[in-house]
Amino acid sequence: MRGVAPPQGECLQRYLSLLLFLVLVLGGGLLIGFATLPGAWYASLAKPSFNPPNWIFAPAWTLLYVLIAVAGWRTWLRDPAGTAMKIWGAQLVLNFVWSPIIFGAKMMGPALVIIVLLLAVIALFIASVWTRDRLAAWLFVPYAAWVAFATLLNASLLWLN
Q: How many domains are there within the chain?
């Protein structure tokens, strides 16, 4: 019924599930980020003129991970086993795989392939939820912009090195 709040237990479950999404995405991203710090290898690379300062990455990814988690949570509430949720899961896997490949294995070529796929899957997620949950789609727009920039940066690093 419109205008009636959900029962208290149901509301609590919704917010606990949001907390789980935040822990999964933020926790996973932070864990992978700390486990695969760029280090001396990355510092020694020739970088393009548009390479941002190192301090910008942690706050940018923290904000993006919150947006990714909220979009995933909203999608899961709507249809936990649906196509959009599977696409959301695929982007998270690609996201979590990229750092270990580029910073851990120091493989810029395969990392570029992964990040191009990631950008495509992000766009696919936006398209898949656009008509049903415009907010979830918009939450992924800054993510798409950042990953597009990161794709250009990855390609430039590969070209210069």
A: 1
Q: Which three-class secondary structure state does DSSP give residue 1?
A: coil
Asked, for residue 70, whether it belongs to a domain, the answer is yes
Q: Specify the CATH number for the domain of residue 118.
A: 1.20.1260
**Spatial separation of the C-alpha atoms in residues 112 and 120, rounded to whole Å:** 12
Residue 56 has pLDDT above 80, yes or no: yes
* Residue 3 domain-assigned (yes or no): no
Note the pLDDT of residue 1: 41
Answer yes or no: is 4 within a domain: no
pLDDT for 58-102, tens place per residue? 999 999 999 999 999 999 999 999 999 999 999 999 999 999 999
Rounded to 10°, the helix 57-78/83-99 angle is 160
The model scores a pTM over 0.90: yes
Residue type, 144: A
Q: How far apart are CA 140 and CA 19, in angstroms?
A: 19
- Measured distance CA(55)–CA(61) in Å, rounded: 11
Q: Has residue 48 been placed in a domain?
A: no
Q: What three-state secondary structure class fits 52?
A: coil
What would the mean pLDDT of 14-27 be, rounded to a whole number? 96
